[in-house]
Structure formats: structure tokens, C-alpha cells
Amino acid sequence: MPRTSDEPNAHLVNHDLVNKDLLRPVALLSTRFFLVVALLGMVVLAGFSAWGYQLYNGIGVAGIRRPVFWGFYITNFVFWIGISHAGTLISAILRLANAGWRRPITRCAEVITVFALLIGAMFPVIHLGRPWQAFWLIPYPNERGLWPNYRSPLMWDFFAINTYLIGSTTFLILPIIPDFALARDKFSGWRKRFYGILSLGWRGTQRQWHRLETAMQIMAIIIIPVAVSVHTIVSWDFAMTPVPMWHSTIFAPYFVAGAIFSGIAALIVAMVFLRRFLHLEEYLPPVCFDNLGKLLLLMSLLWLYFVFAERLTVWYGNETAEVSVLWLTQRGPYRYLFWIMVACNFGIPFPLLAIKKLRTISGTCIASIAVVGGMWLERYLIIVPSLSRKFLPYAWGTYRPTWVEITITVATFAGMALLYVLFAKFVPIISIWELKVGMREASESELPIVAQADLRTDNIAPERANNQAGGRGQFQK
Amino acid sequence: MSHRWGMVVDLDRCTGCEACVVACHAENNIPTVGEEQALKGRAIHWIRVERYYEGEFPEVRVKFQPVLCQQCDNAPCEPVCPTYASYHTEEGLNGQVYNRCLGTRYCANACPYTVRFFNFFNPAWDKPLHLQLNPEVSVRQVGIMEKCTFCVQRIKSAEVHAKMEKRDLREGEPTPACVQSCPPKALVFGDLNDPESEVSRMTRSRRGAKLLGELGTQPKVTYLQREDWNAKNI
After folding, report:
1. What global pTM score does this model have?
2. Distance from CA of B184 to the nearest CA of A (A)
3. N or C: which end of chain B has fewer CB within 10 A?
4. What is the pLDDT of residues A149-196, one digit of tens each?
5. Closest by Cβ to B212, choosing from A134, A241, A391
6. Angle at A327 between CA A322 and CA A328, to 5 degrees
7. Mean residue pLDDT across chain B
8. Nearest-by-CA chain A residue for B39
9. Which CATH architecture has domain A22-135+153-435?
10. Is A151 an 8 Å CB contact of chain B?
11. Residue B18 Ramachandran class (φ > 0 left, ψ -120 to 50 alpha, else beta)
């Protein structure tokens, strides 16, 4: 196996301690946990109530109107599908590049993907005029001989998102299996039975490890084109129609870059919260944030480049309808939102990420929160102004969201947090076995070759283990 | 002989009286959404008379332009529908299958003419309008897209009658409600496949132009520009 010099957890040497540290959040139930779950659950419940209200009264309780037929819901759809690019794509690329600092962050990232996809995929259904007929999008043989229209970008979306959901769920679950087995071995009682079922008979034999690693390798390669295709197709929902400033070839790469941008930001925010509330300071060291911060900086510059290229060509081309939409966002009533977006996606993150002194954990966290907000605004500014100024001035219109849309939007953020908190309660949020592989590689590169034979059996030099344990006397289990 | 239905709107003749709008409402069971919803831009008018003003007061010129579904040959609304609710009929109309519509509203976004209308709530009519519903036309549920059909119920009825009498359709036999009710005869409807029909002859007029023709949607509605405007511009 190739050596990597960027192991962030080289200081961790005691495998038992790692087991205890990372299984502790799974084992303990605190009042704080229940409080957080109750609070988030209430917000989610409010969201479902708002949706119920909309189902009962009709889609008209949302703020959409003619000609702005798509509003908050589609914005949320694009936003959450974008966030889902955090995980699987980043973790797959870092796995293939064999970047050592990926080890503690892959699982946090992959979970974001699965949950963000689940949330994002709800929105096309929420926004339907008749959501109870949504199953018509599924191609199933029926007595009327009717099939969905495969020429519609919405159908491409349906398949792309389902493929990505299946792929990223597999990609998430595969490397959890050894950790479930570890939990099964360490716990007793109902937890032992629970994790025993989830570990799918994992015994840690040579053959099982070999299969797991082969499967991970294959999935990491497959998932990258799938992830790129998903946001490409989401962009084509817009780019395929003759709507001013939508009908553009730049949209596919623009959306993919934006998705990765917001995805990395969401990942950093999630990691900061995990680090603080699950006491993972030693496992998520600053180097992870530093490296992700650099990636975020790159994406921020790329985003600015795309926005510039898109707007310059529209302005120079000077086509009547397109320019009218352009000025609506640059000079018209949307100009405040536009400049807030630029500030959030470039103005705030650029100095925080470019200056090494500011690229700390809190620095990257502030930048990331700005980017998440800015990217939501970006989607809103892509969708709404174009629709409100189509070709015939007589049919222009504006859009304002109602409380129903706002409640559902807020509820999705709470829903994401709730799913994340619950996941971290049932599954070790840091991949324990992958961390140990990293530890072993780090120590192998330090120790003489003869000592490596001992390491294979998890025997750690006793004095080093004691030093580690002594420094953390507060830990009890 | 297969038909290809088309329309001509003579802007020289249109007075902006909106009789077509009223006739369309009555014929096609179009709900009256009420003041509050209309203010929100949710009023449904399959045909509308757009007013454009040119010049500064008092030298103001007003131009009336009735806009309805252009029944495009290359319609942007059709391919985007995931369930084939909007599709191209054999006679070249842009069909809308209400029962098949999910309400994605994608077609309405794609339509450059903004002539597709959405039922944000279940339909309602101010009394006593609820007593005059046309039994030939289905009433649309909440969450469904609707638009001008060229009064397809009248076209079908005329075709069935002609078939029963074993003859071809006569000129002017199917007439949409808007055309029938237009006092100055600004609207002309007919078969574009018949080169001698009035609509075909007028479509070939040198005053003829397509609305947003540059988008390549190939509309079957032709607008005849105002003669005095042409004179001024030439």
C-alpha cells in the first residue's frame, strides 16, 4: 500500500482508546440529545403540517403564480441536490487520490449525500399540483399502455437521482459494516443484537476484507460520473427550455461546480458541529479543515469565474429578453439579493480562506455558512427572475413566498440536522477501521521494518499507549 | 383529407373589446378565480387582449394584441412534460390531457407566450355562472394545467357530423367561440391544409407575421400587422 505523509491522526496510537472514543457517542444517551431531537423534531413536524395544509387546500397556498410557476420548492430541490455532492463525490475523489486526511471525514461526507438527496428528492413531489399522482413518473406496465415521456428532463432527473441515491447509499453502507461488527463485539444487550444484524455476518476474514476493498474501489470509480451526471441533469431542467438566461450551455458545468462548492461548505459546517458536540477534537484535527478550506477556496474562485462568464456573454450578446432578465438582477429589485449572493459566495469566504492565518476551524466555518446561504440565493436568483421576465412584457410578474413555503424550507434544514443527529447516535460518525488503517500506516513509516510484524496484531508499544491514556484521564467507560 | 387548424389575427380589425375573452370563458368552463387570486396573477384567460402603448401623451397610440395558445408545430411545452399530458395531436394541435397532468408546471415555464394556465385551487364560479357550464367540456381539478384548445370540442363535433353525412367539412364549419364572437371579424379560423380557405389566404398575406417567430416555435397563429404602421415604418 502506498505511504502517505499527510495522516492527520498520526498522534493516535492506542486502538482501544480509539474504539472507546468513537463508540462513546453511540453508547451514551444524554438529556441534551433528547432536547436537540425534540426541538428539531418539532420544526420538522411544523414542515409536515404546512405540507398537509397545502395538500388539503391546494398548491395555491404557496406563493407561486403565473408566470413564476417555480419558486421556493424548486430552489430547495436544486439546493439540496447540490448539497448532496458533498459527500460521495468528495469522498470518492479523495479515496482514489489516497489522501490520508480523508479518513476521519469520509463518513460525515457520505451521510450528507444520502440525507440531502432524500430531502431534495421530496421537493419535486411537494411542488406538484397533484402529488398523489406522483407515481406516474415511475415506468410501470399498466392497463392503459401509458409510459412516461423519456424526452422530458424531469424524467432524466427521476432516473439520475434514483441512481445516485442507490449508489451513494451503497457507498455509505459498505464501509460501515466493519464498524457495525466492532460495535457488535464491544456492546452487550440489545445493542449487540442490533449491530449483530446490521453487521451482516462480518467476521473480518481476509476474504471479507478483500471483497470490501474491491467493492469500495469499484464504487468510488462508478460514483464520480453518476454524481456529475445528476447535477448536469438538474441544470438541464432549466437549460433545455427557451427561457431567457436559462437556455445556456454553461449551465451544466456551472451547476456541477456550484453543487460541489455548496457541498464542501455543508461538509465543513457539519464537521465543526460534530467536532464540538461529540468531542472529536483529536479525530478531526485542524489539517482537515485547512485542506477542505483550500478546496472551498478553489470552488469559490471557480464559481466567480462561471458567474462572470455567464453574465458577460449575456450582456455582450444583448438579446432583448435575456438582457432584460440580466438587468433585473443587476439593477432591478433583485440587485440586493444578487450582491448578498456575491458577498456570501466570494466576498466573505475569499479572505477567510485565502489568508493562511484566517483559514482556521472557525474561519472555514464562517466561510462555509456564508457559502451555504449564498448558494441557496444563487439558485433562487437563477429560477425566479428568469421566469418573471419572459418574452411578452404583458405577462411579466413577480413572486413572493408564503408562510407555507418558508415553513417547509426551514423544516428541511431542521430535518437534515435531525437525520444527522440520529445517524451519529446509531453509527460511529468516523470510520473506525479506516482510521486505524491510517494509524498503522503512519506508525509503520516511523518504526523499523522488524517492528511492523508486531503492529499487525494490534500490539502497541506499552509506554506510548500509557502516555496517550494518561493525558485523557477524564474518559470513563 | 387531414386537417391542420390555424388562425389569423388581423390587428387592423381588433378593437380590444374582449368579447373573445368572455366567449372563451363561457364555452370552455374557465373558472373565475375571484378578485384576490386575480390580484396575485392567477386569473385564467385562455385568450387575452394585450395592450401596448406607444409614444408620449397626448400622442399615444394603443395596440391591441389578442394572445392565445399559438398551437406551435415545434412546441416547447410538449417534450418537457414527463407524462405526455401535453402532446401533439394528429391535426397539429397542442393537446392537453387534463387527467394525465401532474402539475409540474414545466410546460408553462417552457412556453414563451405564457399562455398556459394553472389551477391553483379547485375551480369555482360566481353565481349564477355555475349554472351555465358547458357539458361538452370537462371541468379541471386543482393542480392541473390548462390552455386554449382551439375549441377542440367544436372541431370534433363538426367532424363527427360531417362523417355522419358522408361529406368533407365545409369552410367555416368548426368555429372556436372567440372567432364566432368577434364583432369586427379580427379572428379567422380554418384549415391550413386547404390552400383556398380564408385562413390560408390570409396567412400568406404580406402583412403576416408570427409572434416571437424568431424562437423557431412555428406557430399556427398568424398576426396581420396594422397597415398604417407598416406604411409608417416603410
Report:
1. 0.90
2. 23
3. C
4. 999 999 999 999 999 999 999 999 999 999 988 888 888 888 888 898
5. A391
6. 95
7. 91
8. A65
9. Up-down Bundle (1.20)
10. yes
11. left
